Amino acid sequence: MTTATITTTRQSTPSATPATSATPATPATSATGAVRLAHGDGWFTVCDRGLLTPGRGVSVLLPDGDQAAVFLDRSGRVHAVGNRDPFTGAYVLARGLLGSAGGRPFVASPLLKQRFDLTTGACLDDEDVSVPVFAVRVE
Question: Of 27, 32, 66, 112, which one has the greatest count of Cβ atoms within 10 A?
Answer without folding.
Answer: 27
